[in-house]
Design a protein that fits this description.
The protein is mostly helical and about 400 residues long. It has a single domain, classed as MFS general substrate transporter like domains (Growth Hormone, Chain: A), CATH 1.20.1250. Helix 11 runs antiparallel to helix 18. The chain is globular, with a radius of gyration of 20 Å.
Length: about 400
């Protein structure tokens, strides 16, 4: 793979990240302007995530037919148009079809590019790839925080559309570059075995990795969607500083992935996952303590820093844990379950905080963390029993 193609793939992952943090940072203003309950954000995130799950599950067939390059370009264009639509909605109900389009576009990009790099690149490239996703999700809250002071949340969505549309154009024009530089790689990638869901669900190690992916993304999006609202409603932040604080969280995630990439040649993959889990522990404790708002921001930063390295490193291990011939099918299912976490976490926070108040938000983060750590331990034990635990990857 040439350096130029790798740069294009990195930029594509910026485009994957741009839409993901917009709804969380903009929602305090959206629900006020449209006159809807704050809990309604869960409907939008549920739809986006649900459609991403569907797209990821069927990604193997789509990618085999069209190729990674075309799917990535077309899907990014879909997400760009969806962002433009969000900036124009007259009421909440117009957001529903836009959320569906946004979710369908995201799933195919995520599954295709992750498997492409897992097969053909080093662990450092996978971490850098997800670092660029972090750039995208960090950029959006910053754009939104700046938009609040002059053009409002609708202007923030328009600015995000401009960024996304530019990335879509780049990907469209780069399709020949993929054909020129990686046609043989794509051929190998797309000749893998297409496992059915029924076949995968019979494997305990697959079920365990599904739980890990579900939990790490549940933590990520519980913070991404509700972090700003928690700071505004429980810690007394105004909406501009709440959105800006969310940028700090995503910067932490980006730094975690960037540092993990730098250390990929010195520290093995499972150890990097372990370090991320260790960093998460004090982060959760800080969130649980009754401290003022600035400590909550520090806690969110550390959650991003620690949790940020878990997802890309688990993705990188997929061909090693399950075999290259089935990696695309397993990859699609992993990403689907990651987005089930995205789909379930925000409404879970919504339902429970609706009963007990937003103050229970840190307790929910702690529960998700505990389940993830237990699942990682069980998965490693299962791989060891099967003789497929590769410590030195």
């Amino acid at each position: 793979m040439t350096s130029l193609l790798l740069i294009v793939i990195y930029i594509a992952f910026i485009g994957l990240g741009v839409p993901d943090s917009l709804i969380g940072s903009a929602w305090p203003a959206i629900h006020t302007e449209l006159g809807i309950p704050v809990e309604m954000v869960s409907i939008i995130t549920f739809l986006i995530s649900g459609c991403t799950v569907l797209s990821s599950m069927f990604s193997t067939r789509i990618l085999n037919k069209l190729g990674t390059a075309k799917v990535t370009a077309f899907s990014t264009a879909m997400t760009a148009l969806s962002l433009l639509g969000f900036s124009l909605v007259p009421s909440f109900w117009f957001m529903i079809p836009l959320a569906i389009v946004l979710g369908l576009g995201a799933g195919a990009i995520d599954s295709g590019l992750n498997n492409y790099l897992a097969l053909h690149c080093k662990a450092s490239h996978m971490n850098f790839l997800h670092c660029f996703y972090g750039v995208g999700v960090s950029l959006s809250p910053y754009i939104m925080s700046q938009a609040f002071s002059n053009v409002g949340w609708r202007g923030g969505y328009r600015y995000a559309f401009y960024v996304q549309f530019a990335i879509a154009l780049l990907l469209i024009f780069s399709v020949p570059l993929w054909k020129k530089n990686s046609s043989s790689q794509e051929s190998n990638e797309e000749s893998g075995v297409n496992l059915s869901i029924a076949e995968m669900i019979k494997k305990s190690e697959v079920r365990q990795v599904w739980v890990i992916m579900l939990m790490t993304n549940a933590i990520e999006y519980a913070c991404g969607v509700w972090g700003s609202t928690y700071l505004v409603e429980e810690k007394g932040f105004d909406i501009e500083h709440g959105a800006l604080a969310l940028t700090v969280y995503y910067v932490g995630m980006s730094i975690g992935r960037f540092v993990s990439g730098l250390l990929a040649n010195k520290i093995k993959t499972w150890m990097r996952i372990f370090i991320g889990c260790v960093i998460l522990a004090p982060a959760i404790i800080i969130m649980l303590l009754p401290l003022n708002g600035i400590f909550a921001v520090v806690g969110l930063f550390l959650i991003g820093l620690g949790n940020g390295s878990v997802y890309p490193n688990m993705i990188h291990l997929t061909p090693h844990n399950f075999g290259k011939e089935v990696s695309q099918s397993i990859m699609g299912s992993q990403i689907a379950f990651a987005y089930i976490g995205v789909m379930l976490a925000p409404p879970m926070v919504s339902l429970i905080s609706g009963v007990f108040g937003i103050k229970v938000y840190p307790v929910l983060l702690a529960l998700l963390y505990i389940v993830m750590v237990i699942a990682i331990k069980c998965f490693i034990n299962r791989l060891k029993k099967q003789g497929r635990y590769i410590k030195d990857v």
